[in-house]
């Protein structure tokens, strides 16, 4: 047995998730392209499976570009979707064959025009969508009117206008969020058409939710809402791009961890310490936004509430103390715990060596047979 903690990924589950999403996006006659957000699970075997299915890839850095190219993904399928990038990174991406970029400022647009001449660009605007479970706040996206101006400017600079793009926030639970964003994107597309500028694509981002401890809207509901909005607000020839990360890989992963210790604090609350915490894979428990489910070898024994914490000496390395987590009262040091639905944003959020703990080890099912 590998040393705990470790993440086990199932590429076949990723394939199933991709095909299910592709199916619900293909029912209205409009082309909807799936572009995997590599940052969710930057594992070569996962990238290879999705490449074989025909996916495109949203990359956030030169490092992710290199990972995709090494996995055999053609550069033509990559989009450098991070609006925050250095001129040197744009130049290197262009040198490696990347011809699609996202931006949200005039400065970044100018850098793309200089270092990736002729590239296709998508301008990210801040949609008026309801707040998601893990929102981006104001970090990304310009005002819709500014997106219109910048895309027109892109045409003047000799760049190919892809179109507007938006993101409704990670783990978005309201299907109407995509309708709102598509309606706003449609207004930008119409205004560009009035200027004689055609739009090839509207990128509706990621945010597709996964059921952890709580139920979420079905992907089919979100797809139907989005496709209906596209039919109402976008020209028929305009492609949609969807950029899922979590929705493709979360359910394909299970973290195997171990109980380090159990303690009753002075206030009487029971604390269960695991050998995995916020700094070696569980970063998405910050603010307890994502509530993972736990299973143990003692399931079936009596349960009670527990505070769940990681192994480091950082006081913030506490996974759940407001969320009601029920764990067997018989748990002891050395017991095995499995954290379900952890295929997304675990290996990629793992620190290099905080407190001397190594990054999360990843095991891919079937890899030993390759």
Automatic annotation (TrEMBL):
Catalytic activity of the protein: L-ornithine + H(+) = putrescine + CO2
Signal peptide: none
SUPFAM superfamilies given in the database record: Alanine racemase C-terminal domain-like, PLP-binding barrel
Sorted UniProt keywords: Decarboxylase, Lyase, Pyridoxal phosphate
Taxonomy, superkingdom: Bacteria
Annotated EC: 4.1.1.17
Domain Orn/DAP/Arg decarboxylase 2 N-terminal: 14-250
List of residues that carry N6-(pyridoxal phosphate)lysine: 39
Pathway field: Amine and polyamine biosynthesis; putrescine biosynthesis via L-ornithine pathway; putrescine from L-ornithine: step 1/1
InterPro entries: Ala_racemase/Decarboxylase_C, De-COase2_N, De-COase2_pyr-phos_BS, Orn/DAP/Arg_de-COase, Orn_de-COase, PLP-binding_barrel
Essential cofactor(s): pyridoxal 5'-phosphate
Any one cellular-component term (Gene Ontology): cytoplasm
Official protein name in the record: ornithine decarboxylase
Organism: Nocardia donostiensis
């Amino acid at each position: 047995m590998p040393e705990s903690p470790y993440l086990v990924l199932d590429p076949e589950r990723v394939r199933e998730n991709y095909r299910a999403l592709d199916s619900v996006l293909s029912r209205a006659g409009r082309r909807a392209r799936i572009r995997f957000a590599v940052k969710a699970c930057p594992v070569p075997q996962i990238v290879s499976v999705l490449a074989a299915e025909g996916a495109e890839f949203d990359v956030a850095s030169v490092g992710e570009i290199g990972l995709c190219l090494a996995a055999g993904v053609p550069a033509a399928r990559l989009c450098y979707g991070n609006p925050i990038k250095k001129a040197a990174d744009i130049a290197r991406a262009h040198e490696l064959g990347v011809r699609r970029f996202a931006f949200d400022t005039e400065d970044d647009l100018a850098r793309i025009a200089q270092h990736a001449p002729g590239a296709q660009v998508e301008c990210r605007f801040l949609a008026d969508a309801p707040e998601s479970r893990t929102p981006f706040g104001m970090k990304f996206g310009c005002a819709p009117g500014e997106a219109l101006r910048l895309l027109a400017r892109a045409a003047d600079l000799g760049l190919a206008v892809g179109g507007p793009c938006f993101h409704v926030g990670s783990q978005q639970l309201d299907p109407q969020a995509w309708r709102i964003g598509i309606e706003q994107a449609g207004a930008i597309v119409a205004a560009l058409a009035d200027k004689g500028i055609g739009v090839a694509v509207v990128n509706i981002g990621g945010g597709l939710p996964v059921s952890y401890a709580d139920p979420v809207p079905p992907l089919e509901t979100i797809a139907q809402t989005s496709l209906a909005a596209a039919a109402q607000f976008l020209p028929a020839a305009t492609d949609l791009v969807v950029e899922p990360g979590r929705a493709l890989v979360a359910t394909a992963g299970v973290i195997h961890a171990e109980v380090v210790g159990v303690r009753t604090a002075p206030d009487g609350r029971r604390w269960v310490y695991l050998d995995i915490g916020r700094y070696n894979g569980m970063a998405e428990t910050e603010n307890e936004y994502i509530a993972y489910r736990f299973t143990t070898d003692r399931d079936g024994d009596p349960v009670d509430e527990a505070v769940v914490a990681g192994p480091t000496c950082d006081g913030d390395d506490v996974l759940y103390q407001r969320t009601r987590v029920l764990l067997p009262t018989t748990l002891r040091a050395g017991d095995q715990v499995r954290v379900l639905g952890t295929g997304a944003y675990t290996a990629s959020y793992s620190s290099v060596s905080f407190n001397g703990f190594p990054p999360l080890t990843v095991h891919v099912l079937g890899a030993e047979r390759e």
